[in-house]
Here is the input.
Amino acid sequence: MKKLDIIVKYADLNRFSLAYVLSILEHYAASRRTVRRIVLTRDVLREIECSDADLMIIMYSLMTPQIFEEDLVKELKEVDLARKKRDKSIILIAGGPHASGDPTGTLLKLGFDIAVLREGEITIPRLLDSILGYDDLSNVPNIVYRDGDRVVKTYDYVPPRIIGSAPFSRTFKIYAPIEIMRGCTHACKYCQTPRISMFKIRYREIDEVRRYCEHYAKSGIKIIRFLAPNGFAYGSDGRRPRPDKIEKLLRTCKQIGDIKLVLGAFPSEVRPDFVTREVMEVVVKYVHNRKIAIGAQSGSDRLLRYIGRGHDVACVYEAVDLCIEYGFQPCVDFIFGLPGETEEDVEKTVKVMIDLARRGCIIRGHTFMPLPGTPFENEPPGKVHPKYLEALREIERMRRLEGYWKEQEHIAEKIHRYLQENKCIT
Here is the structure.
């Protein structure tokens, strides 16, 4: 029997997504004796050099900003050299938002053999089976792979429900926020999430969420965060909130005992149109967090329509007022340099940001980044207008400012150059 090692690249930024991947791998290894060991490491090259496995599968989870990190770029080049020196087989697999958005570039520019496009619970076990010879690679859903000089894409498949992979790794003791929702029905042109999920939304069953909460509590984790693209959308059609469903979820989990639930703050920010009085009446009774993260993105109704947000500025004010009324501090996100942004849009957004800061809101600034796989992937990188900088200085003096817009402005330029260069090879 061949000796198989699965090596997973660890990065702090990917810690929580890796918890889900490791859970899938641990379950797979328990059912397949061919998997000798699963290794989680920061130093992939060292594991390659030390391993005596007949076959090594090396897995990375990638977000687009990570592909410009010097250490990662250097490591991938060294890994490629190392596997050319070895007689034993090494297969490189990439998943995560970048692999989903730019699978061809992930193969041809970054040097991976296979890119996983969507959720791993279905794809990863079948992919491993095909690598081990139990099935043909072309039968595995949601992947792109190299076949000689060809790049082959298999069929898309999004299961009708979230397949129950645990949000934690038993082996490596990584406990991620508990995913309660997957996907999005909205079509914001800068966002990868709805496209990865093919605009379908699914929810984790309450009994399953409760079991994970119980496990976390027994493991000594008392503050439990929920993961969702829209924290107040649980159980809904993705367009209108269902406060009854939210209450059932929160009430059921709180019955466990001495735990504190976090919903509506990182990593489950909310859309402003889902902040209703009925929802706030429920949330205020159960959640531990005293901040609510609201995605406004712009203070211009024209620009909100253009980018496909599906709400207006008045909706943002209504959401903020409700949060404050119920004793929460709103943290409101804005994106600078969005495609199509005019001088008038900037002025309107500046006015809204300063107004909200004076009301006590935290303003969290971002710079537009043209992410692969989105309608805006070929748009110019975002630039922070001087009027934004002036407003941000004023908001900072109020001690109401957060965000990484400076770093994102530089990353946006790198992403834009990368995607334009990519056109030449795809």
